[in-house]
Amino acid sequence: MKALGIYGSPRKGGNTDQLLDKALEGAESAGAEISKVYARKLKMSGCIACGGCDKTGKCVVDDDMQAVYPLMEEADIVFLASPIYFYGLTAQVKAMVDRSQAMWSKKMLEKGPEERKVYTSGKGYFIAVGATRGKKLFEGAEMIARYFFDALDMSYEGGLLLDKLEDRKAVQENPETLAQAFELGKRAVAG
How far apart are CA 21 and CA 30, in angstroms? Predict the structure, then answer.
């Protein structure tokens, strides 16, 4: 079992990173092999809508995303983590999501309409951290996460959506959130 963690925060070591670290620790404790991708470190463009992936299912843009595609394809579980910026994902991880159009194209090329109704590549989980407490704080980002996992041919299994966490060490002051993330990782592998 392979689990991939996608770190979407531009801030190293913040709440989002700490929660994803714990989720991956939980997954590893349950026997998963772990890989990590830090969106903030990738040198890549957003999707340029060139249509190059439409016929092959492969992105033609030659940048750091070329090393990420195999990790996404090999993963049985993907944890996508992002702080909430203006009720959405960070720009860094949103660019990765947009570049997953190639994965969507591949799915369309390889599976017929009936086969597309069943997810066969694994499970996706979303970890999001927001500073405010707005009623719809996570709706936009969660919708993007859901369709990202769909492009990867993975079922969306929920995750952790945590509000009122702004200070860089807020999760350390709420150890129950770190325990929740660890358990999420364990459940993802066991389930």
Answer: 14
SS3 166: coil
Q: By three-state DSSP, how is residue 85 classified?
A: strand
**Residue ranges per structural domain of the chain:** 2-190
Section 14-27 average pLDDT? 97
Contact 61, 48 (CB under 8 A): yes
CB 166, CB 113: distance < 8 Å: no
Measured distance CA(102)–CA(45) in Å, rounded? 14
Q: Given the DSSP bridges, would you call strands 33-38 and 77-83 parallel, antiparallel or unpaired? A: unpaired
Pairing type for strands 154-162 and 77-83 reads unpaired
Domain at 2-190, CATH homologous superfamily: Flavodoxin domain (3.40.50.360)
CA distance 143 to 106: 21
Neighbours of 176 (CB within 10 A): 8
- Sorting pLDDT into bands at 50, 70 and 90, what band is 54? very high
> Nearest-CA neighbor of 64 among 29, 95, 85?
95
From CA 6, how far away is CA 145, in angstroms rounded?
A: 12
What is the crossing angle of helices 91-99 and 65-74, to 10°? 70
pTM over 0.90: yes
Q: Measured between alpha carbons, how far is 45 from 14 in angstroms, rounded to an integer?
A: 24
